Amino acid sequence: MVIELKSVSKTYNPGLFKKKVKAVNGLSFDVRQGEVFGLIGPNGAGKSTTIRMLLGLIRPDKGAIHVHGKPLRQSPIQREVGYLPENPYLYDHLTLLELLSFCGQTSGLSAARIKARGEELMSKLNLLDAQKRPLRTFSKGMLQRAGICFALLHDPSMVILDEPMSGLDPIGRKMVFDLVMELKQQGKTVFFCSHILNDVERLCDRIGLVDQGRMIREFKRQDFLQSIGKAAFIHTSELSQGQLDRVQSLGGSIRKEAGGHLLAIPNDKYYLVNNFLEESKIEILGCRSEWRSLEDLFMLTVKEQIQ
Amino acid sequence: MKSVFALAVITFKEGIRNRALFGIGLLALFLFGLNVTVAGFFMREIGKVTVDMNLSAISLAGLLLVFFVGVNLMAKDIDRKTIHLVLSKPISRAQYVWGKYLGILFFVTMSLMLLLIFSCMTVLLLLKIYPDYFLGFSWSIFLVACFFILVKFWVLTAIIVFFSSLTTSSLITLIFSLSSYIAGVTIEEVVFYLRSELAAQEKIISESLKNFIDVISYVLPNFSVFDFTLEAAHGLNIASQRLLVSFGYGVIYSTILLLIASFVFSRREFN
User: Fold this and answer.
1) Does the CB of B1 have a partner CB in chain A at under 8 Å?
2) Which of A41, A199, B15, B85 is the most exposed place for a label (fewest CB within 10 A)?
3) Tell me, what DSSP letter sits at residue A45?
4) C-alpha dihedral, B223 to B224 to B230 to B233, nearest 10°
5) CB-defined contacts A:B, below 8 A
6) Within this chain, do residues A216 and A241 fall inside the same structural domain, yes or no?
């Protein structure tokens, strides 16, 4: 276990005459060596607070945080962690090269290593042309990518990313996605928070859903496939009750979706169900790769919580 | 130590590239130019007025530098949460405080050195134009007065770092630092007045107020000890003991403030 949080709570005191805010409330989870762990949850769920407690920027009121089995205070993670905050504010008048040089020096890297590693990362994130420009001239997406370079320069064994895809265009998102996949292949531990559930779903080995400072549910990749087994997922227009009964009798499963129904058809029953759909002239709206997406599970769990 | 130096370097670069620096520099150059232009109006006092105006211009430019650029170099880090990124690296909170202090100190020192060169050129020019009116002028005393202006700003920088380590907003840091400066410049006169016979005749000044000011005078910085304008303007010799006491006071006061700032900063939470 790389990181372990045990019943951690944190309450913010916004000041005199203001109500205290319970940001994290008895949160427990663990992140294992070499896995990609995603923390998702609605705004104000306590994700960023959790990251700040991990980095030692704030202290938990209750509970314990262990890193490699030792309490966080005895084993600060700064040497082995790379951190990207949400919307990183970097120094306006510095160039990316100077920022990376600072990062390397504080992490104890040699000048040659800083240069080599910096060029490697800037090339991967398409920032080589902008390396000598002041950071204030960078776009939001470029700043995000510069922040990622800053986080990864010292080749950390653990990476903490808070909304890494925020502000990125599709190309930037693909770059970051590939980079996280590469980190995963290198056996690094990645812990990240994101609102872009599609990315979380594709990248993470395990996902924790937090709401109101508590861990509501933990998902594994297999949870998205549920117990349907090998099946094809077809999104159709709205079906009548008779059509629903017929599909079920042919062996298919049905779930109500926005604008229609989602059918899960076991591979061996595919032609039967397909013939029926063709005969009944049922409109096919598209195909899906899984029975429930993380978004479905997220919405379902949050709704359950509200009820 | 490497981390402290690395942080000091980026703080210095961040400060020296700030555009406000050009405005402050131009203002100082305008004051030096004004000095050259109007010096002839002061008859026999040209030497004294030149020294006075030059030291005041350096002092004003330094104040603007510290309050408009220096404050932002640390307080904005906290304001904009850049500090989260910096503290995610292996830098201790105390190293951060000292690194920031040294960075602002380099920045203020380099900027004032540049202004000093222009100031010396102004004095040199007026010395050539009106040599008869600079009889008591001494370069060494003038440079000593300039050096102690710099020491004053080192102490003021420590005050800014101290308040930045306590507050979450650059505006609050600015208000507290400015208040400390104003109080620090006047506190010596207030204390001397209260100890004088003139104050003893005043019935409205209560004993408790006197005691309070007495206590507060040990806490507030006494910026008057760094002021050698009078000596520089009149070419009066300054006892080396006085220089040592003033310098020692500046160093000890700044060190104590930075130690307290490091202690507070190490316990602080960054939401």
Assistant:
1) no
2) A199
3) S
4) -10
5) 80
6) no
